[in-house]
Write a structure and sequence with these properties.
This protein is mainly β. The protein contains no helices and 28 strands. A hairpin with a 2-residue loop joins strand 22 and strand 23. The radius of gyration is 19 Å and the shape is globular.
Length: 348
Amino acid sequence: MFSVTKRVLAEFDKLYAIAGVVDQGHFKTCYAASEGREGRCVQIDLEDGRVSGRWSFPGGTMTLCPTGKEGELLATQGFWPVFDAAESVIVRSHKEENGYVTEPVQKIPYLHRFELLNLSWGRVLLAATLCGGKENKDDWSKPGAVYAGAYAETAGNHRAEPVSLEPVLTGLTKNHGFCQTSFRGREAVLIAASEGVFALYPPAGKEDKWETEKLLSREASDVACCDLDGDGQDELVIIEGFHGNLVTVNKWTDGGFQTVWSTPVTFGHALWCGEIAGKRCLITGHRREGMELTLFDFTEDSRNPARLTIGNGGPSQICVCPNENGAEILSADRERGQAVLYTVTAEK
């Protein structure tokens, strides 16, 4: 099957968000950041192991988003545990002559996930808010939404301009899952919330509208998709419930998605599926009771996949880079406070 090696890249309290920059099939750079109020963000050069500080305060980082420019990074700050995020902002971190500078771009309350989409007609910021507001941590009376707006490239070291955002999907309670992917042969972003799983299809032109499709009516907090059984059709993989206790694979049959496989998790939080060294694989991660990061190989038997435990650090986020030998996995092992590079190698 696969063998696994582990390399700890950085350690600090409440490490939550992780992202990587890929070069020729391998991670070149890793960014890791904390959700804690005193949280920091670091940049790790994966060739020489050098760790550089990007900021030391504040934390509350849910998302890290490299922009494609050397050393430039967008991120969230001010999303504090637990769901205390009325003042959350997007920040831009970039390099100047005297070091790295981090500056606010715009305030977006309860911003949980966002991504820059490279469309044929320009770049778009797609931003998802967990909710619309809270009186306390248990208040879910104000739904969240997904917003989109044209992103203007920042010239040189000039200040990044705020993005004019318009809602493209509304009425989402516990709007947590966000997956930029290809679904049924189309570019898509999959969104998971209490109301179910939705596909957002980007517009073909700047003046066109976003297309939305509801795929599932079950509550989900994370979502991914790929063809796990090899029949040419994408399956939907979800963490059922909000930080739920079950991962399910759902196949399109009789006009709807039906569960064909499941595995228990505890406080499920990380999810990925795709091809690794010619194998159709699913990776799950959970943050309680064993805290495993697990790889399932569906290639030989899609109803009884082979299982491999990769790590047990309680991952909050993962980034996966398949390559010719297997895959590299960047994991924010939240419960151990470690940014980790797992290398999964196909056994010959």
